[in-house]
Amino acid sequence: MKKIKTLVIGSAFGLLLTGGLAQASTTYQNYSLTVGAFNGSAYTSYQKLTGYATVEETINFHSDSVGGDYTVDVRGQRNSGKDPNTKWIRNVGDNESHTITTGVLAESSSSYRLQFSNDLTTPVKVAVKGKFRTN
Fold first, then answer.
1. Nearest by Cα to 44 from 109, 93, 112
2. Under a CB-based contact definition with an 8 Å cutoff, are residues 57 and 112 in contact?
3. β-pair type (111-117, 126-134)
4. What is the spatial distance between Cα 4 and Cα 9, in angstroms, rounded to a whole number?
5. Fewer CB within 10 Å, N- or C-terminus of the chain?
6. Contacts with 65 (C-beta within 8 Å, 6 or more apart), sequence order
């Protein structure tokens, strides 16, 4: 009976420990930016992962508002490494949530920012507000 109890406690501790390593999330960071006209861009500041994960990195973002009746394109940019840009998420508007999968295994030194871009035909600057976090 004592062996079984030790095994159960040891297994629970192991799951607790590896579960902590598999989660590297940060708190949401607010952004409020102006994206330039005619294919202009705007960037958030970088957000560093707060831990180390054994899964690929992701970015969660929520777009609270995009000015006027416009939409913007959004992608993630890693602070270093080969192919630091993620794929674009096209036509993001008001009150939308998205998850960007980076395709990179998480490292403790990873930081990401969001890049917002207008279409080539958008003749005005567009204000964007929301929040994002890295996982």
1. 112
2. yes
3. unpaired
4. 9
5. N
6. 94, 95, 127, 128, 129, 130
What does the pLDDT look like over 7-30, one tens digit per residue? 444 444 443 333 434 344 578 999
- Residues 62 and 97: beta-carbon distance below 8 Å: yes
**What pLDDT is stored for residue 15 in this prediction?**
37
CA-based nearest residue to 115, from 78, 69, 67 = 78
Buried residues in 75-107 as b, exposed as e (16+ CB within 10 A) = bbbbeeeeeeebeebeebeeebeeebebebebe
Q: According to the model, what pLDDT value does residue 16 have?
A: 37
The model's pTM is 0.78
CB 77 within 8 A of CB 47: no
pLDDT at site 91? 97
